[in-house]
Write a structure and sequence with these properties.
Layout (H helix, E strand, L loop, with lengths): L1 H17 L4 H99 L4 H7 L3
């Protein structure tokens, strides 16, 4: 008898879990879920709007950056063209100046060598060369 009462008690406790949900129960659960998720749906809609705005801004910024890059590339090209012409001009004048200095140095050196050779042959001309500033 005790066993039967124990089995009956277990079956009595387990009975609600065997039961099916009625349509009314399902509607109440659906309403409860809708109420709980309504703020989340509104937040998601706001986020979608914000993301769309940001995407529009990003697209606008990308176009602006592309235009800026093209303008900077054009300006850099112009500056490079000017710099190349200035560099060639500067290189030309530096080369001419160095050639003038090199030629005068080399001629002066050869003149000094000739004078030194001449002084070995005629040491009496040393005072004359010093007087005119060659030595």
């Amino acid at each position: 008898m005790r066993a039967l009462s124990a089995i009956g008690l277990v079956l009595l406790l387990a009975m609600p879990s065997w039961g099916e949900l009625s349509q009314r129960d399902l509607e109440q659960i659906g309403k409860l879920i809708d109420r709980k998720f309504e703020p989340l749906k509104e937040d998601i809609a706001e986020l979608k709007v914000a993301v769309a705005r940001l995407e529009g801004r990003v697209d606008g910024l990308e176009k602006t950056v592309d235009a800026f890059r093209k303008e900077m590339d054009a300006r850099i090209g112009e500056l490079n063209a000017k710099m190349v012409s200035k560099q060639w001009f500067l290189t030309m004048w530096v080369t001419i100046t160095l050639m003038i200095l090199a030629v005068s140095y080399l001629y002066g050196r050869s003149d000094r060598e000739e004078i030194e050779c001449g002084l070995r042959e005629k040491p009496e001309l040393e005072d004359a060369y010093r007087a005119i500033g060659v030595l």
